[in-house]
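Input record, target 12 of the design panel.
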């Protein structure tokens, strides 16, 4: 009897996890579709690291060039006292974006959600150093999935080799600043998947 109950629980848990996954995929597709229609696609320079982890799955973990900003360069934030900023550590912030040449950068950081129709991405304040006026940020879209064969090939590359490819991600934003990674590009705007497949095929010749 206990085995049957345990089996039923496992089945229900599996169904629940599958439902959550399907819902996440559907929501991501919706965000991308709306972002493309409303011009909320941004390009962020990134630094991949730990490309493959057998315990965590086939993901490239990412850090971004915009994860650290100078408060003195932020039009609104530079008027906010250090005490207030310190109280917002580990809380949400809203980063206003603008495109400079190829990539988007942060032009301002707000501690409350923008009321106007502006391009922004939601972040979390991780650190604040008042002496250097540095603000450390993190973003929810910090992993990129790769098929196992491609992830293993990426793992053979050193961080320096990866960085020499000038990697960046194409991100879709919804109206609330939530982000979904649409694709990852390297070199001359080539999809990371196509680049790795080309390497794998060249080794087979």
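The sequence produced for target 12 reads:
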């Amino acid at each position: 009897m206990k085995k049957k109950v345990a089996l039923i629980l496992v089945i229900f848990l599996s169904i629940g996890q599958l439902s959550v996954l399907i819902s996440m995929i559907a929501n991501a597709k919706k965000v991308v579709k709306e972002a493309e229609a409303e011009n909320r696609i941004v390009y962020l320079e990134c630094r991949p690291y730990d490309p493959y982890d057998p315990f965590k799955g086939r993901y490239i973990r990412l850090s971004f060039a915009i994860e650290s900003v100078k408060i003195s360069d932020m039009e609104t934030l530079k008027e906010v006292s250090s005490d207030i900023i310190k109280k917002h550590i580990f809380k949400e912030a809203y980063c206003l974006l603008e495109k400079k040449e190829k990539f988007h950068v942060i032009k301002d950081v707000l501690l409350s959600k923008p009321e106007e129709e502006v391009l922004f991405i939601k972040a979390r304040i991780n650190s604040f150093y008042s002496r250097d006026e540095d603000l450390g940020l993190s973003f929810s879209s910090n992993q990129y999935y790769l098929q196992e064969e491609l992830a293993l090939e990426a793992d053979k590359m050193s961080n320096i080799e990866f960085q020499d490819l000038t990697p960046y991600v194409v991100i879709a934003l919804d109206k609330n600043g939530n982000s979904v990674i649409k694709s990852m590009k390297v070199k001359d705007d080539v999809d990371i998947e196509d680049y790795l497949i080309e390497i794998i095929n060249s080794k087979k010749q």
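The helical segments are 2-37, 82-87, 148-155, 159-163, 192-204.
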